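thread: overnight batch results

M.L. [08:02]
morning all. the overnight job finished for the chain we discussed friday. pasting input first so we're all looking at the same thing
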Amino acid sequence: MPLMKIPYIPRDLSWLSFNERVFQEATDKSVPLIERIKFLGIFSSNLDEFFRVRVATLKRLSEIKKNARDFLGENPVRLLKQIYRRVRLQQKQVEMVYESIVSELAEEQIFIINENQLDNEQADFVRKYFHEYVLPTLAPVMIDTAPKFPYLSDAAIYFAVKLWKKSTGDQNLKYAVFRIPTNVLPRFIVLPKKKSDSRHIIMLDDIIRYCLKEVFAVLDIDRAEAYTIKITRDAELTMDNDLSKNILEKLEKSLKQRKKGLPVRMVYDKAMPKDLLKFIIKKMKKGTDLIPGGRYHNFKDFMKFPSVGRRDLLYHNPKPLEHHDLKKTRSIFSVIRKKDVLLCYPYQSFNHLIDWLREASIDPQVTSIKITCYRLAENSNIVHILTNAVKNGKEVTVIVELQARFDEEANIYWANQLKEEGAKVIYGVSGLKIHSKLLLISRNENNVHTQYAYIGTGNFNEDTAKLYSDIALLTAAPEVTIEISKLFNYYVNNINIAAYKRVLVAPFFMRKKFIKYIQREIDNAENGKEAYIILKLNSLVDQEMVKKLYQAGQSGVKIKMIVRGSCSIVPGIKNISDNIEIISIVDKYLEHSRVIIFCNGGHERVYISSADWMYRNLDNRSEVAVPIYDSKLIKQIKDMLNIQFHDSRKARIMDARQSNLYKPASSGNKTVRAQIATYNYLKNL
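M.L. [08:03]
and the structure it wrote out:
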């Protein structure tokens, strides 16, 4: 789809702007200190995935030149240069902020020390810890004499080591490389507490540095220096077309190939000696981009920084609320039969869903349970209850999306577990990633087949439900449940694409319906009627949708948006987008819900959806947007959005410069932090 001649921020540059908003949380002194260091970890983890997926894709596209420009609408080579320029600047800023946080931790009597700062007592502990836990995990490769350069795992950290004897200098020079074992040991080790209130923490890297010569004790050397390197590899999965293999076999083969994907970048300690760096570069694949950095890499490990010090150095989130309609009921079915229910995570308890599934698993009137699984928790209660339902004689059908990026292996494991217990497991639809979040429970009530549905914006995942802001509708309305049933039939049989009158389903009708509803707002605005669109999305980069929203704004439609991540629209341009207002909220919870509202001539259409407005979601995935009919629930959704639009603590204004300026409080109004205000709003419902 060619890029239109209108203001359009490339997806990847806009994503970097989003990650800068994450980085801002690490610089915000109102954020608890240890949470700030964890935000550095989130920033780093995000950037790793960006290189593994987006930069790797751009590098491949840069090789096909003209066709790539037609596909992207941008010159991939120019785009890569812009990306690297911003990433290198970010790298410097991260190192400065890290040093600043280390200093602030010291003021709180929390000291991150290195191998040169140990006292005698600490040195004894470190040496014992090294010999008992660390040394058995180390496996150096002498790269100066090895027949070939060793494979370096994606996103792990390694020490490149220079070894020599003082008396012989370069004549006896040796090079080695080995993995820092953060996959089996914690990155941060809290040293034994002394009599004072201070706490001392040392990184695993520096424990190894302190005992480095002991790793190479068999060699005739008296000097050893270690420098960190990290490789990021292309994470694209290439599925072969062998018709004799099923999807599971193809995916398992592709996952093995991913682990050996071509290097995209190498981040290295800029203090590394030139001779060692030159040797490693010579051994790396051509096309690997080099990014100089500080002494420590893989800041993603900072997400697991130890909880030490005062209580107020960490976020202490309030206990999730019990939904007022569900907290005292014996049967959740009896509630949903009478009225629709809206659950809002993480403010309200995810346990309501667990309780409902448990009830269904033992209810003699329940005949079947159908569910889509995209990303599951590490120790999934959802799966345990589903297997229990099978044992209780329920017909359980689980649609497992094996190609959920970076969760493929976990999903293969859960699929096998469910299959072994007797559940009917469907591995998605060929050529279509199933991203919808659906649960359908069938029940025999007085010889009448009755269905209950759950349609959400987030995954069936107990872990992320504590951290992601999502919405889910629980309903027994036949006009919705019948259409959800049709969609499950399509997932199972891969035939008979049904007609959907109320539920919007991608990739079949969702795009067309949204275009139709935007056009209706345009027509109403041009006829002097009230017209508005309210959107809350994670990403808005689809070029057709961007163009249509610009058209709507130019026609007088008032458009207000909350977009957490990538956003290609440039608001506030005179005669182009001056009717468009966009903010982005980054706070302690990840804003993940999608809400779409159309004025519709005064008869509002309100949807919650699993889909962002990206080409992949609207055209290459199975997604669902469900209408909300209950007037009280519509009011609740609009109230929650209104709270977010009035956020003056964590909302950033989206603009052409991607400057991420904080949205100020309205004159005379109190400061609003939307996530806290939302919790209080739901508490008082």
